[in-house]
Amino acid sequence: MILHLLYLYLCFALSILGRPTSDSSRACTSATGVCIDQITEPVTGVAFGFAVPQNVSGPGALGNDFVANITVPLPYGFAGLQGGSSAAPSHFHIAALMGGRVLPNASYEWFLIVQFDELSPDGTTAEPVAGPAITISPLSFWHHDHASFVFRCANCDIGGEVADGKVQLGALFSHVRQPFIIGRTNETLTMANATIAPFVMDLQDIVREDFGEMLRGTGLE
């Protein structure tokens, strides 16, 4: 149901990296005629989609400018609605915590993408608070049992061990609110009450759409 709702809401195509060890799916909507490819990690139920420019620049596996779509079942702390007190407004908490394997059988190197969005007065939409690198698409939405975020990361990179054209990545999903860190760090973050979901993406299988058109279509230009 999560992916079905996602297909109805999103009106753009996100290219998936790879042949993951998790499930992949593709569906087209009659409403928009758009086909979306995603990786769904079966343990957590979290789905990932990525799009990159034709000519990737930057040191990371995706370069330093990419569009990502993450759909996550609530109430993961990774993507949840944080209630405010009477003295402060509620905020929509977006934190995508991902990392790549540094060495075989070694710990992961983690980094965090984070942004706060103020909720609109009627509580139905998230209004982005300006940030240095992350721009949230108006196509993002939250529902009582899941949230879907579409964002552009213009000054960050996804590191990871690349071998034979494949990058080994991992994602940590936690009900516990993690420290807010922007950028990359070698520190090991707490794994308390967390689920770790490693996955493999094949860089050779990227379908590079017109990045400019995608940015315009997602409101991220």
Automatic annotation (TrEMBL):
Organism: Phanerochaete sordida
SUPFAM superfamilies: CBD9-like (SSF49344)
Cellobiose dehydrogenase-like cytochrome domain sequence ranges: 29-159
InterPro entries in alphabetical order: Cellobiose_DH-like_cyt
Residues in the signal sequence: 1-18
Domain of life: Eukaryota
Keywords carried by this UniProt record: Signal
Protein name: Cellobiose dehydrogenase-like cytochrome domain-containing protein
